[in-house]
Amino acid sequence: MIHLNDKQYNCNIEVIVDVIGGKWKMLILWNLKNGMRRFNELRRLIPGITQKMLTTQLRELERDKIVLRKVYAQVPPKVEYSLSEYGKKFRPFIELSCEMGNAHVKYRQQSERNKKIAKLEPVLA
Questions:
Q1: pLDDT at position 112
Q2: For the chain, what are the domain ranges?
Q3: Which of 6, 75, 78, 87 could staple 83 via S-S, CB 3.0–4.6 A?
Q4: Could you report the per-residue pLDDT of 38-85, keeping only the tens digit for each?
């Protein structure tokens, strides 16, 4: 049994799913993998995410020491987000996830083409 952030996990996979799982966190990490981004820049880069959800997800990533938040003392406030040194360790995982996403799309598209061909074969025979 693993205890972390006042939660109990049965295995390490549960931990990582909790830390970077869900619809938005991987997209946030993807957009931070090459450097700093401002809040509104992240919002533009991640279509469909609400301001509230982006704030929540960034806070959770910050809590887990994956993302750093830098606030500049100016008006209007300027806030930048970047991967922490620890967060940079996620880069290979993020990039592999992207590659696997591409591979899965190709696999499914080929599967769909094969189904269409199989439906046509009796007509062609």
A1: 85
A2: 2-124
A3: 87
A4: 999 999 999 999 999 999 999 999 999 999 999 999 988 899 999 999
For residue 124, pLDDT over 60 is answered with no
**Longest CA pairwise span in the chain (Å):** 74
Write b or e for each residue in 6-37: b if 16 or more Cβ atoms lie within 10 A of its Cβ, otherwise e: eeebeeeeebeebbbeeebbbbbbbbbbeeeb
pTM reported for the whole predicted model: 0.82
The answer to whether 28 and 38 are in contact (CB under 8 A) is no
H/E/C letters for each residue in the chain? CEEECCEEECCHHHHHHHHHCCCCHHHHHHHHCCCCEEHHHHHHHCCCCCHHHHHHHHHHHHHCCCEEEEEECCCCCEEEEEECCCHHHHHHHHHHHHHHHHHHHHHHHHHHHHHHHHHHHHHHC
